[in-house]
Amino acid sequence: MHKSPKSVLILNGPNLNFLGRREPAVYGSQTLADVEALCLRTCSEHGYALDFRQTNSEGMLIDWIHQAADLQAQGVLAGVILNAAAYTHTSVALHDAIKAASVYLIELHISNVHAREPFRQHSFVSPVANGVMFGFGVAGYALAIAALAKR
Ligand code: DQA
Predict the structure, then answer these.
(1) pLDDT at 3
(2) Number of domains within the chain
(3) Residue 92 forms part of a structural domain
(4) Nearest CA to ligand 1 atom 1
(5) Centroid of ligand 1 to alpha carbon of 47 (angstroms)
(6) Closest among 32, 106, 99 to 66, alpha carbons compared
(7) Which structural domain range is residue 113 located in?
(8) In a domain, 2, yes or no
(9) Angle, helices 139-149/32-45, rounded to nearest 10 degrees
(10) Is any atom of ligand 1 closer than 6 Å to the C-beta of 91?
(11) 47 assigned to some structural domain
(12) I want to staple 12 with a disulfide (CB 3.0 to 4.6 A). Which of 16, 56, 74, 144 is the partner?
């Protein structure tokens, strides 16, 4: 019997809908639609389905992390890649949600957050992530999918 592919859930937080026209010197000129297309190609190469989302709302990100726990319980989740954007540096609620969901999760940032302002150098996500990818531009999304496939 044919088994349906597991899904990679990619969650993008606030202001990432502005990718391409937002501080291009930091984040590059590709749009979020370009990133989604890259992720779709990379997921197909690795035999995964893709579920790619963006929200500006902290509560929505938390609801999606909870959904990821349900997907994992159903055996259909390959892992979560989370670019929580600015909520990375502020959200205890997101930290608690990831801890509660106990899903395999890669924290991702397009920019090298450690080479930027001091307030970006603390992450509430890192202590509850399985791995962290940052500083590779939008190529980091493809690298993170490859990392999931190597598990
Ligand atoms: C970001 C880095 C965060 O510090 C920032 O708030 C973002 C994007 C990145 O992808 O480099 O919005 O997560």
Answers:
(1) 74
(2) 1
(3) yes
(4) 85
(5) 28
(6) 99
(7) 7-150
(8) no
(9) 30
(10) no
(11) yes
(12) 16
Tell whether 1 is covered by a domain.
no
Residue 4 pLDDT class (50, 70, 90 cuts): confident
Q: What is the chain's mean pLDDT, rounded?
A: 97
Q: How confident is the model at residue 144 (pLDDT cuts 50, 70, 90)?
A: very high
Domain of 78, CATH number, reads 3.40.50.9100
Pick the residue whose CA is nearest to atom 8 on ligand 1: 85
Distance 87 CA to ligand 1 centre (A): 9
Residues belonging to the active site: 27, 109
Question: Are 31 and 20 spatial neighbours (Cβ–Cβ below 8 Å)?
Answer: yes
* Helix extents (H) in 14-57: 24-27, 32-45
Q: What does pTM read for this prediction? A: 0.97
The number of angstroms, rounded, from the C-alpha of 18 to the middle of its chain's C-alpha atoms is 16
Query: Is any atom of ligand 1 closer than 6 Å to the C-beta of 12?
Result: no
